[in-house]
Design brief:
Helices cover 36% and strands 23% of the residues. By secondary structure, it is α+β, with helices and mostly antiparallel strands. The strands form 5 sheets. The chain has a 7-stranded antiparallel beta sheet with strand order 3-2-4-1-10-9-11, covered by helices on one side. Strands 5-6-7-8-12-13 form a 6-stranded antiparallel beta sheet. The two termini are 38 Å apart. The C terminus is likely disordered.
Length: 508
């Protein structure tokens, strides 16, 4: 999961892109980057860290131009905390192209071999986004006539990308001297929207991961980019679009609605906030149906994404809703941190309990999901330490039993607490008196009810069904080897050693 932006405007876009990244910061806190275009010249600045830390006034002054793209990174493939893998990526042949990508390619290793052996292209990092960039560059070269581009040749190149690339990808790219390109994979797994703003100089266009970026930047939502569709906007603001996939189908990732997206976003015509309210309703219905014996005094959410579900659940059950935890917003997401000890410490730094809301009460804690169980276990313990009589736990989503291979760095299956355990065993692991999970059918129905036109969803982390059809047991075994704690710790150590070597070279 990452945040991407692309803009074609009538005025300088550096501040617009910076403000947009701040709005999308929840989609990635590992690194950030902006590239702007002045004619055929690119200006780039990117680095590891939060958006506010990556860009300084001097950096912004150097980002001139009325077109640009931006990216905030959440590592799903490659090395964490590696500045070399901050996006956007750049390639200069045959056309200068910069690209930002949200998602994950499931055939990146094969593509990397093909690029080296057949396309005579070299990939410098472990990032699948750089692979995708080089595939796009090669397809543009193959489809161009006399090294000149037109919307038709650009769309033909995207069709070539769709034929070669598997997995999930929402992409923004800028082609030097031509314009802005955006496209979405044929399954529509990762979100991408386009909007416009009317100015006294003409129409400006913005492409973004979530509609909230359009809202806050003064753009009007036109529509979602369709699965397999490509959009090209030239420097003069001429808008072109075309379906570039043979058999596109819409399968948005359901975890976007559970947790990833901001509640004020609308994805594929579905209000994220409304889906979370409905999740609370169906979870309450399940408690009324199957857990009537629970003597609940108060409902408390685990901030932030579970709040709408917890509020609606409390309302439907006629129970008190209280804020029992205060969140420190300057701590990263725990399920992508290496090592259990670091995760446990991070939970305590991120959340602090308000004792008066727990003392002597039977508390129902509501969270959006349970992944490793680290956060849930610590939170249950905090509730008990604050004097709770009994602690019940409800998850607004079903058990997470399978790894996600489409752009969410969920841990390997053996590190998922629900893997190989039933509800009672999971309850014992996290220390709760009773555990209530949302049913997958109910979750899908909750999301679908907001926009009945969307009939299919990507639910692999809950169901183990991978919509692209190319995810084999062998591929998952490779994912397991690459994503476990030991492998991540080795990559972090290597990245730190490499950075130290670079510092020594610069100092010496």
């Amino acid at each position: 999961m990452c945040g991407i932006l692309g803009v074609v405007a009538k005025n300088p876009v550096n501040q617009l892109l910076y403000d947009g990244l701040l709005v999308l910061q929840h989609r990635g806190q590992d690194a950030a980057g902006i590239v702007t275009a002045e004619g055929s010249t690119f200006h780039m600045h990117k680095d590891s860290g939060f958006v506010r830390d990556v860009f300084r006034t001097r950096d912004m002054r150097n980002l001139g131009g009325t077109m640009g793209i931006a990216h905030c990174r959440y590592p799903t493939a490659g090395s964490a905390n590696n500045t070399a893998e901050a996006q956007p990526f750049y390639v200069n042949s045959p056309f200068g192209i910069v690209l930002g990508h949200n998602g994950n390619l499931t055939n990146s290793e094969q593509l990397k071999r093909d690029l080296f052996r057949q396309d005579l292209r070299h990939v410098n990092t472990n990032s699948d986004s750089e692979v995708l960039l080089n595939v796009l560059a090669h397809e543009l070269q193959d489809n161009s006539s006399g090294f000149r581009l037109s919307p038709e040749t650009i769309f033909a190149a995207v069709a070539g990308v769709h034929r070669r690339c598997r997995g999930a990808y929402a992409v923004v790219a800028s082609i030097a001297g031509y314009g802005l390109l955006a496209f979405r994979d044929p399954y529509g797994i990762r979100p991408l929207v386009v909007g416009q703003a009317m100015t006294d100089k003409g129409i400006e266009y913005l492409v973004a991961s979530e509609s909230v970026a359009l809202d806050t930047l003064g753009f009007t939502l036109l529509r979602d980019v369709q699965p397999g569709e490509a959009i090209f906007i030239d420097f003069d603001g001429n808008f072109h679009s075309r379906q570039c996939a043979a058999n596109p189908s819409l399968n948005p990732c359901i975890f976007e609605f559970v947790y990833l997206a901001r509640p004020d976003s609308v994805i594929d015509g579905i209000s994220v906030y409304e889906t979370r309210l409905r999740m609370g309703e169906s979870l309450a219905d399940k408690i009324l149906r199957d857990y009537r014996d629970l003597d609940i005094d108060v409902v408390i959410p685990i901030p932030d994404s579970s709040r709408p579900s917890a509020m609606e659940l409390a309302n439907r059950l006629g129970l008190s809703y209280r804020e029992g935890f205060i969140k420190n917003r300057y701590i990263g997401r725990t399920f992508i941190m290496p090592g259990q000890a670091v995760r446990r410490k991070s939970v305590r730094q991120k959340l602090n309990a308000i004792g008066v809301e727990f003392k002597g009460k039977n508390v129902l804690l509501v969270d959006d999901s349970i992944v490793r169980g680290t956060t849930s276990r610590e939170i249950v313990q905090m509730a008990r330490e604050s004097g709770a009589n009994k602690v019940f736990f409800a998850s607004a989503s079903p058990p997470v039993r399978f790894p996600n291979v489409y752009g969410i760095d969920m841990p390997t299956s053996r590190e998922l607490i629900a893997n190989g355990r039933d509800d009672e065993a999971i309850a014992r692991e996290i220390g709760t008196d009773r555990l209530v999970y949302q049913d997958l059918d109910a979750l899908v129905a909750d999301v679908r009810a907001v926009n009945p036109k969307v009939t299919n969803f990507e639910t692999s982390c809950f169901s183990g069904i991978y919509v692209t059809g190319d995810v084999t047991p062998e591929y998952l075994a490779g994912v397991e080897a690459d994503r476990n704690d030991d492998a991540l710790a080795r990559r972090l150590a290597l990245a730190s050693t490499t950075q130290l070597d670079l510092n020594l070279v610069e100092a010496g």
